[in-house]
Amino acid sequence: MKKIIISLIILGIIVFGIFVFRKENKNDNGLTKITLAEVTHSIFYAPQYVAISEGYFEEEGIEIELILASGADAVTAAVLSGDVQIGFCGTEATIYVYNGGEKDYLQTFAGLTQKDGSFLVAREKYENFTLENLKGKYVIGGRKGHRMINL
Predict the structure, then answer these.
(1) Sheet holding 32-38, edge to edge
(2) Eight-state DSSP code of residue 24
(3) Which residues constitute the domain of residue 34?
């Protein structure tokens, strides 16, 4: 149920952004071009990736250019400079810009996730996996700065 709600929120944000910028940004083929910067490629954005690859946006007259701007600071800079119209990142960058006294600051209008998601991936298939299967195994964190843990 949570996945469905998150998927609907993501699509809602994209649609909202599209309607805001629709009239200003028509390209040669009559589509409204929206550039969207995301902080990371994530399985949590799967509904967005499907909608883009299956042409759902084009059916509505929208062309989505999806770019990766690694880090909330890079996404924030891209939105503030006008290089992108929509940015997916955490709220911390928005707060930093606002607290810095900027008159043209970003406004967060939706939260997509409450926590950073993690997945456990194995080389071998476990029919009835339990946490006991991790005893004596190494777990490697998926991001820079994470370390290998021997359980």
Answers:
(1) 62-68, 32-38, 86-88
(2) G
(3) 2-99
139 domain residue, yes or no: no
DSSP letter, residue 99? H
Question: pTM for the complete prediction?
Answer: 0.60
Residue 118 domain-assigned (yes or no): no
Task: Give DSSP secondary structure letters for 38-72.
Answer: ESS--GGGHHHHHHHHTTHHHHTTEEEEEEE--SH
pLDDT tens digits, residue range 14-40? 666 665 555 555 667 889 999 999 988
List the structure tokens of 87.
Answer: 């940015």
Residue 148: its H or E element: strand 148-150
Give residue-wise pLDDT tens across range 61-112: 999 999 999 888 899 999 999 999 999 887 888 888 888 888 888 877 776 6
Q: CATH code at 29? A: 3.40.190
In a domain, 51, yes or no: yes
Q: Please check whether residue 7 lies inside any domain of the structure.
A: yes
Number of domains in the chain: 1
